[in-house]
Each structure stands twice: as structure tokens, then as C-alpha cells.
Amino acid sequence: MGATDYFHDVDLALERIAKEGPNYGVMSPGGLLLEESNFIAARKFHTQEQEIVGKHTDDELFRGLVYCILAQMQDYGTQMYVFHKLCDNGCGTIDGVLENRAKVPEHVQPAVYNNSKVDYILRLAENWDSIGIHDILANPDEQAARKELIKQKGVEVKTASLFLRMCGMESLVPIDSWMIGMLYLHGYPIEIERAATTRDKKQKPIKLYTQNQLFEDLPSQPTRVNGQKMRKRSIKGPRYLNAEAHTQDLAAKYEQPPFLLQLAFWTKHSKFTRVPKRTLFDSLH
Description:
This protein is mainly α. It has a domain at 36-172 and 255-284. It has 14 helices and 5 strands. The strands form 2 sheets. A 3-stranded antiparallel beta sheet has the order 1-5-4, with no helix packed on it. A two-stranded antiparallel sheet has the order 2-3. Helix 2 crosses helix 14 (258-269), helix 3 (58-70) runs antiparallel to helix 7 (114-126) and helix 10 crosses helix 11. The termini are far apart.
């Protein structure tokens, strides 16, 4: 099958690729085509993420949710930097966060929306016993499990989907800005939602030093509309479920699980490979 065979609306897809494709590194229809190597890379990354939640002990599941909370509206490089900062400094367990709560803001400071994420992490540790996380994971109805998990403050639909996918619920898809963009470029009835933004210090390139390696991970560049900077934003509610259904439709054309399709596009097009070669779980042992 050629690239256009995967399109939902060929004419609309070609028009969108010409206009928005370069923002995603897609210069032609062929740039959207996924190959077997993309799915192999996606599966490898999925396996690495699953090692964060390990055998599903309370501390492993707590770390997994912290990892997912840090992913909200965040480039992968900074997400991992903050995640390792927490784990390396005694804040990678429930008791560790509670005993070192004064240090959590310092470690999370480089993150976008850092104050909110600190609040979410502290509340998660404080309320852990009342969440019933093991009951949620035991629910065979994955949609119902997600609905229960998003009752926690700071756990949005995408956050819950990522966490539950890491725990083995593979029908759920964490719809990120990359997946929205890929659906848009394939001609699905979806729009790239943007909101006006003012760049502050946290939106500038952040230089991070990890294991004697320097890297710089740039946030996605905003689009200008009438001179106003606009940045992509997440989707919620019915729009999220619609995007998830579109992802399932496209995944069926590739004969792949929907979650793996999302990861294949992300590993192919995002900048995650610029992160220093440190495994996801180095600081957990």
C-alpha cells in the first residue's frame, strides 16, 4: 500500500500536508508512511516504559503515574530530566515524596506548569491508599478503568491512558499533539487546537547536563496567527474520544494495535532520540 491508501480524505490530506506538513517534518505523503522498523522501535520503547511500573508494586505504580504527570504538555527531554531528578534524590517512592516534600518543588522546577505538577505529585502520594489503584488495574473494562482513574486531580484522560497502557491496557491511546497532527495530515475530521501563548523563561531552550552529556531540547515552535504566537494544546472530552476512534481506524489499516500506531508516529517524528542514552529506569535501582 502507498501512503495515500492510508488517508481518510485524500484531497484534504494533500492540502493539509502542503500547508502544515513541514511543521511535523512531513514534506510529502510518503513522509507519513510507517514501516516495520517504526513499529519495532515503538514496541521497544513501550517495553522500556513498562519497566517503570515493573511488577506493579505500589511504589512502581506511583512512579509510573508521576512519569505520566510529568509528560503533560512537556517535551520528552525535560520530562525525563525531572523524572530522574526526583528518583535520584529520594523522591521516587510514596514515602520518599512525603518525607522530602520540601525538595519536590526544586526538582520539578524545570517542568512546564511546574507548580501544578508539584501539587499533583504531592496529592498523589498523600491520597495513594484511597485511590484503589490495584482495583482499577483489575477492571477488565479498560474504558471504565480510565474513567475511575481520571477522578484523581492532575490525571487527565491522556495521562490515564498513558499510565494504563504502560500497565497493559493496550486498547487505550494517549492522544498527544503528535497523534493529533498525524490524524490531521491523514485527512481525518480533526483540527489542531491552538491557544494564544506568551513565551516565558520556562519555554526557552533548557540546557541539561546528565551523565556528562549536554543536550538541548527545544519546545515545539508556536505558529503565528495574525502576529500572535499560538501553541498547540491538548484535547478533552468528546474530541479526545473522537481522536481515539480515528486512531483505531488508522491502526486497523496498518493491522497494528492503536497504542502502537501512536508510539510509532511519535518515535518516528519527535525529538526523543536526542535525549542522552540513559535507560528509563536507571535511577530506580
